[in-house]
Structures are given as structure tokens and as C-alpha cells.
Amino acid sequence: MAVERNLTVFLSSHQLNEVQQVCNRVGIMSHGKLVLEGTVQQLMAQDEAGGYSLELELIGQIAPVGEAVRRIEGVNECIVDGNVLIVRSEQDVRSVVVHTAVNAGGELVELRSHNRTLEDIYLRYFQVP
What we know:
Blueprint: H1 16-22, E1 26-30, E2 33-38, H2 40-46, E3 52-59, H3 62-70, E4 75-81, E5 84-89, H4 94-103, E6 107-115, H5 118-126
Antiparallel strand pairs: 1-2, 3-5, 3-6, 4-5
């Protein structure tokens, strides 16, 4: 309704998981100053690690799989660690990565994923040591 009426609604909350589900744009304040602002996707993309992290445990030749996955649009980083491929991206590329890995000769044993949340971003920037 706010979009239809060209309205801005300010919501102040420490429940970042709810904010992520409800809001189109997010601003994070620290000590009375706006320090981060944008869509959740934009904030995740600004994070140097990217917004999504995948770990693929594979059997077979992992180097060619890594090379193929690195060429996927949206993949920021692809690290080979033994028989595990660690993929970081700014968007959800799980299905493309799995398809590419299998087509490149990898046999998928396990897939683990972690999608960054607003809370992850907040803690990364503002956690007190």
C-alpha cells in the first residue's frame, strides 16, 4: 500500500529478521547517524564476502569444477579446499552452481548454504570486540 500511494514508512526495530522480510529499503543507524542504507541485496553486495555462501563437497576432479563455477555470472569468489568448493556470490546461484558442477564432472556429496541476513551484516560492522 505504501508503494501504491508513494509513501515512506519508517520502522525502527532491533528485530532485523522481521525488518528484512517487511522492508523494501533499510537504513542502519549507529550512534545517531545513518551508516548503511539501501536494499537488503545492495547491503549484502557491499559486504566483501558477498551475500551468499555455498559449500559443495565433491568427488572427482575438483579443479575443472572450480574453473567452471568461477565463470558463472554473479559468483564473486570460488575457493577449492581439498574436496570442498566454497562459492560466494551476491545472489542465489545454488541451482546454477550445482548444475555446472555436475556438468563439469563433479559428483555432489553434500551442499551447504548460508544466506547473509541483516543481522549478519549488522554484526559484521557493529559488533563490539
